[in-house]
Amino acid sequence: MYELLNYILGDLMTRLINPFDMAVTQLTSVAKLIDLDPNILEILKKPKREIIAHLPVKMDDGSIKVFTGYRVQHNDARGPYKGGIRYHPNVTLDEVRALAMWMTWKTAVMNLPYGGAKGGITCNPLEMSKGELERLTRRYTYAIREFIHPYIDIPAPDVYTNEQIMAWIMDTYSALAGRNEPGVVTAKPIELQGSEGRTEATGFGVMVTAREAIKKLGLNNSEITVAVQGYGNVSYWAAYYAHKWGYKLVAASDSKGGIYNPDGINPVDLLKHKRETGSVINYPKARNISNEELLELSVTVLVPGAIEEVITEKNADNIKAKIISEGANGPTTPKADKILFEKGILVIPDILANAGGVTTSYLEWVQNLMRYYWSKEEVLSKLEKRMVDAFECVYRISREKNIDMRSAAYIIAVSRVAKAIELRGIWP
Length: 428
Ligand code: GLU
Hints:
By secondary structure, the chain is α/β, with parallel strands linked by helices. Helix 2 packs parallel to helix 4 and helix 2 packs across helix 15 (405-424). Helix 11 (334-342) links the parallel strand 11 and strand 12. It has helices spanning 2-15, 19-34, 38-45, 93-109, 130-144, 163-177, 198-216, 233-244, 267-277, 291-295, 334-342, 350-353, 356-370, 376-401, 405-424; strands at 49-58, 64-75, 81-88, 116-122, 153-157, 225-229, 248-254, 257-260, 287-289, 301-304, 323-325, 346-348. Among the domains are: 47-183, 3-Layer(aba) Sandwich (Rossmann fold); 201-344, Rossmann fold. It has a seven-stranded mixed beta sheet, with helices on both faces. Strands 1-2-4-3-5 form a five-stranded mixed beta sheet. It binds glutamic acid. Glutamic acid binds at residues 82-84, 106, 156, 158, 186-187, 329, 354, 357-358, 361.
């Protein structure tokens, strides 16, 4: 009885880790490693600005629903704020704060001339019509219009937002500004000055970093197996490139459950099944498994590509993958990180592994500002080079100091941001 209670309580506690506390814990432990000036640590622990807006939206049935939207701007010492907008029922201010801080580290580790921000609206986009989503998006853009700008803060998509939503943001902002401002938001449709390669960028980057890790571990290319948790934009493209490069995709999942076939799964065929049925489950060429089972499969590469806190102290010890490439933001808790490091699992941290998205957003923004556009090959080769260089840099520091890749990435990122703050000084 006592054990059962303990288990239930433990499980509840694990799920109740506040993501912002997790982000601050990560920052504080790196501050110790680099002997960070305590004044700068105090600055970095808090976002510079937080916008909360209550958004009345006319629903299709004639009623008015008031949604809550956020934009948290964590730091802009290295350049304009940058980061996505998430539409999800579980969005909270603390989650957006954590995600904003992680964006500051992500742009810094990639050496992009940006800071970090994140937005979110607490809503369930899966239950809303296209018209309702459009009205919500335009209302949100209206509410944050004074705080976004191509040189101030540049939003992009995140969980459950897409290029159509970016198009509405661009249109609303441009209409209010009285001129076309494509550079105010990234990951727009190609027809509206989006960039070639942006759609596949995050998943592509996730697999590029996994491929570099495979090389470092000296693993045989023909024996690589991959499991992806989630089958949204990030996981799908990670699976696509894994398959293209001759690795075997053996498992995938979504919120309804997972599927597994040790002989391999064709990612394009699986996407077709998901589009037809609404889920990856019941795919005729694989057997159903749970999301928990997927995480514990014996594979070469595991891609947690959906949401936060799926690898915790509860299941970290059961993970059998050799490499984890974090497609999602914050999928591993600090306690789980320690366990994985002791087990010798190479974790490519989110701020590096999934940085292909924001890096290609940067390439899109550069194209928008100069009004000159590159081909897909050009964009993806620029992206690949940046991902490989950043991976090398993080890997080298992790080996030199005998620390995990997340700590190494944080050392690089936090040092760069701290230096920028120090050089700029505090004013007024
Ligand atoms: N939402 C993505 C991320 O977490 C992309 C951000 C962007 O492109 O600005 O990195």
